[in-house]
């Protein structure tokens, strides 16, 4: 692996996102909900920024894709734990929605790991939409503004999980950056012709 594939600006931003996870957890443990939500929004911004910069600077790498996926998984796990620490009564009230979102996060990763022996990094459009809807609904829910968008997030997350699982079943080998199930079908057909 070339040094440029490891040390670049998008990867550094992904690393910053991973390092924000303990900060978020500490804010939750010390019961600082407002600061937690502000830091969470910054952390989510780094998720958008690393992908944008990777494309703009032509620094899209397999290492970066995996680092981005690990950052996402760590931050979303910390978000679930932090929600329980900061707002346990809301988590209990919305427990079915929470469990379905967690299931949709864990299921495709686990299936991909079982099939390929590595964690998949598809970065599908449906997952990007699911993340956006979930983050907005998370902030709305825990700010006390609206609760119904969180249930909408469940539907979007489940669709994204089904698509990622389908991609895993279609592909013969692990690949990064498979944007849709149709892309996976096309890749599968090309590989079958070889």
Detailed description of the structure:
This protein has 194 residues and is mostly helical. 31% of the residues are buried. The chain contains 9 helices and no strands. The protein has helices spanning 3-6, 9-29, 33-56, 62-86, 88-93, 95-116, 125-143, 148-170, 181-193. The two termini are 26 Å apart. The longest helix is centred in the middle third of the chain and has 25 residues, at 62-86. The model has no long low-confidence stretch (mean pLDDT 91). The chain is 81% helix and 0% strand. The chain has 2 domains: 1-80, no CATH class; 87-194, no CATH class.
Q: What layout of secondary structure does this protein have?
A:
Blueprint: H1 3-6, H2 9-29, H3 33-56, H4 62-86, H5 88-93, H6 95-116, H7 125-143, H8 148-170, H9 181-193
| Mass-distribution shape | globular
SSE topology string: HHHHHHHHH
Radius of gyration computed on alpha carbons: 17 Å
Span between N and C termini? 26 Å
Task: Give the low-pLDDT segments.
Answer: none
* Total strand segments: 0
**Into how many domains do the coordinates divide?**
2
Helix content: over 70%
Structural class: mainly alpha
Largest sheet: none
Strand content: under 5%
Global mean pLDDT: 91
In DSSP terms, counting alpha (H) and pi (I) runs of 4 or more, how many helices?
9
In short:
The chain is mainly α and 194 residues long. The protein has helices spanning 3-6, 9-29, 33-56, 62-86, 88-93, 95-116, 125-143, 148-170, 181-193. It folds into two domains: 1-80, no CATH class; 87-194, no CATH class.
